[in-house]
Design a protein that fits this description.
With 325 residues, the chain is of the alpha/beta class. It has helices spanning 2-26, 43-59, 74-81, 95-104, 140-149, 164-176, 188-197, 207-216, 263-277, 280-288, 298-319, and strands at residues 32-36, 63-67, 89-94, 116-131, 155-158, 181-184, 202-206, 220-224, 250-258. The chain is globular and about 65 Å long.
Length: 325
């Protein structure tokens, strides 16, 4: 009896001790790539680099940023969807790649639900309705009145067709019942240059791109588009506070893996991303970017993707927004 008990105990101990070794065999052994669908230096890239640096330390292996910019981050998403599902390649998934593009691009060569595993939500950030200080209409109420007085003539810039700025404008047009002119650019930099110079009137710009110009006084922030004010802009009212009930648009960022990523790896990564997001210096950096409410389970991120897919598909249909590609 004692010998049998010893054998059973030894076997159980071996199983416990063997579990990490078995997991280590399935964990990627070399560098892990986090693919970002935007150029270096932008808000998404900055956020990804903060997380990658911390995960490199936590995992004791390099987590490298790989920028594959183009087509509102859909090129990066398409690339990652085709990579091996072994944890060696991850995507900085965004509202552009996983909600807006599917709503307006019928020829998209990936499915944001079927072809990806949602690892973790990094956070949400609003758009900012901004203008040059020289604009006369500096409240949402006044902008609505201006658009109604000059239908189709008040210009709103975006970083391109089907981007977060474009969709925020379309939602504004629907809710305010106004006609405004969408002016697409090839990114936020030329948009902001023209807005500061007075070539266009307004933009629902991303907070990360707009903030340096708001801080310098070259543009003014009129409204933010989440349901609550973020810490970075405590004195800028929301669209809801200015009379647009349930008006909410937000950029969001997460980490996703290819569609067959093993559950054990995905959940380990989720746990470690949550550890990173709880670090004080990471929270401080995210606050300056206006990125809040990240973390939580894989299921939380999956639910966000599903709800955003449904929301923006409806807006695209109502506003008749389509993008070739």
């Amino acid at each position: 009896m004692q010998r049998r008990h010893f054998i059973q105990t030894a076997g159980a101990s071996a199983a416990v001790l063997g579990a990490p070794r078995l997991f280590a065999q399935s964990w990627p052994s070399g560098p892990i790539r986090l693919v970002v669908g935007f150029p270096p230096g932008g808000g998404a890239d900055a956020l990804a680099r903060v997380v990658a640096q911390k995960l490199s330390v936590l995992w004791n292996q390099p987590v490298l940023i790989e920028n594959k910019a183009g087509a509102s981050s859909t090129l990066a998403a398409e690339y990652v969807a085709q990579q091996p599902s072994d944890g060696s390649t991850l995507l900085l998934s965004t509202i552009n790649s996983h909600a807006l593009a599917p709503a307006v691009m019928p020829k998209l060569r990936y499915n944001p639900v079927r072809d990806f595993v949602p690892v973790a939500l990094l956070g949400l950030t609003p758009n900012l309705l901004i203008a040059a200080p020289t604009q006369n209409a500096k409240t949402v109420k006044d902008i609505v009145a201006l658009c109604k007085a000059q239908p189709g003539k008040i210009t709103f810039g975006s970083a391109g067709p089907g981007t977060a700025q474009h969709f925020a404008l379309e939602l504004f047009k629907l809710r305010a019942k106004v006609d405004a002119l969408h002016v697409p650019y090839k990114g936020s930099a030329p948009l902001l240059t023209d807005l500061i110079g007075g070539q266009i009137h307004y933009s629902f710009e991303t907070m990360a791109a707009a903030t340096p110009h708001v801080s310098s006084g070259r543009v003014i922030a009129i409204a933010q588009t989440r349901g609550k004010r973020v810490k970075a802009y405590p004195n800028v009212p929301t669209m809801q506070e200015q009379g647009f009930d349930k008006f909410e648009t937000m950029n969001w960022y997460g980490i996703s893996g290819p569609g067959q990523l093993p559950p054990a790896i995905a959940r380990k990564m989720n746990q470690d991303v949550n550890t990173v997001l709880a670090m004080a210096d990471v929270q401080e950096k995210f606050d300056t970017l206006g990125v809040e409410d990240g973390g939580g389970s894989m299921e939380k991120y999956a639910q966000l993707v599903q709800s955003e897919l449904s929301k923006w598909a409806k807006v695209a249909k109502e506003a008749n927004v389509t993008v070739n590609g």
